[in-house]
Amino acid sequence: MVRCHCGAVSFRVVLPKPLTVDVCHCLECQRQSSSAFGVSAVFPVEGMLPLAEDLQPRVGMWTRKTDSGRTLECYFCKTCGVRLIHRGLLPDGTSSQILTVKGGCMENLSLEAARHIYTRTARVPVPEGSYSGPPDQY
Description:
Blueprint: E1 2-3, E2 10-11, E3 20-24, H1 27-33, E4 38-44, E5 59-65, E6 71-77, E7 83-89, E8 95-102, E9 115-117
Parallel strand pairs: 3-9
Antiparallel strand pairs: 1-2, 3-4, 4-8, 5-6, 6-7, 7-8
């Protein structure tokens, strides 16, 4: 289950567990999470977006450019402002096949097999073998 801080937005994910979990140390995730890193659970877009009709009025979306020049759609609760989902758009404007759900909004998310990415700007120690940049799927 995914839920924002105030509870105005909640929904189920399409798989019993994410494809992968990322602990991202990039500066954007640090700003967005107001912490040393952001946690994202990766899921397929299909079945997740568009959101259910009853949720759409409660969810806002803004876009920003990524370091790679792609566009990132950032979905958030209009009431409490909590970021819920990120979806990347390819240079031609089509959707990436994956999206990320912000880890703090997910119940029972395990970080046991999480991978650390964008570690060049890490503020905390990270495991050896972590990605200094993005993994292949981004």
